[in-house]
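Box 3.1 A note on notation
Throughout this textbook, protein chains are presented in two layers. The first layer is the amino acid sequence; the second is a token string describing backbone geometry. Keep the layers aligned when reading.
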Amino acid sequence: MIQGLTSNRWTRSVAVLTCIVLAVTLLPATPLSGSAPAQAETVTLVPPGNRSETQPPVSPHAVQRTRKTRGSFEGKYSRIYAALKRDRRLLKRIKKVANRYAIDPVHVIGAIVGEHTYNVDSVDHIQAYYIKALEYAGTALTFEHKGEHVADFVQRPQFAQCGTQRGSFAVWTCRERIWTSVFRGRTVDGTAFPNMRFGQTFFQPLYAGQTFGLGQLNPLTALKVSDAVNRTSGFKKLSARDAPRVYQQIMNPDTTLHYMAAVIRSDIESYRRIAGFDISQNPGITATLYNLGDAPARAAKLRLVNRKRAKAGQALQLPRENYYGWLVNDKITELRALL
């Protein structure tokens, strides 16, 4: 298992840099991901490499999925790496799209490799995703729960505060948090709602827990960054009323790359703006956030932790990678070689 691997010499050497802080004034900017709960005054560079010498424990779900297919993490990593290496056209598109969103393309590579190593059975040929994308054309899939469409559900009075939010990211993030705090696992207005995430309940009609495409995106995630992709790439905005098109956009490798890049860019901006960390030089951290989701909330939590540490005279706590991001950093030399 990959869990037993140790960092390479380069990774260990850069760990020494964790004590080096690059503090600069944060310039005002229009965030890609919408409004933030707070704004940091300074920005600290998170150096490349892993903070942990050995890989953190792998998610039990990832272990179970891999055991069911009688595979291994090493085998799945090798398969997706080989598939990417063969597809020079896709690699060129990754670099082009990453440049458009002003991110290092290795962040996108890391997310693809992480997803296919841990969260989905790897593929031998990327072309399979193009074929799957065509299968969603003309389908009758809708985003609903027990006959109630999500577009109607979010018109309930409990979601009124979300109407003041600007941008698709802020609006859908607000709705997701209202679901969690008011509806999830509770009975509201005589209706019992499942103890599942918003995305699982309304946005995965085939079966709960499903993500799609090369980047294994949840339709809700794609809806969140729809405005950013529209502004940056000119794609028509996604609508919760048009589920088949949402699926096609995230299933087609040529289009899903734009949504992946928008998510990564949004996560980088959230950590810079909210937590005061520049994570753009650490693909393992962006991969961790891509895996876990809800970067603004995680950045806000880290900001509070570091406020307490500052009051106690302690050093900053840097963002840390999970098992998924650790692999990306540990394999960074190989991943960059693809580019």
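Residues 42 and 140 are 49 Å apart (CA to CA). The mean pLDDT is 85.
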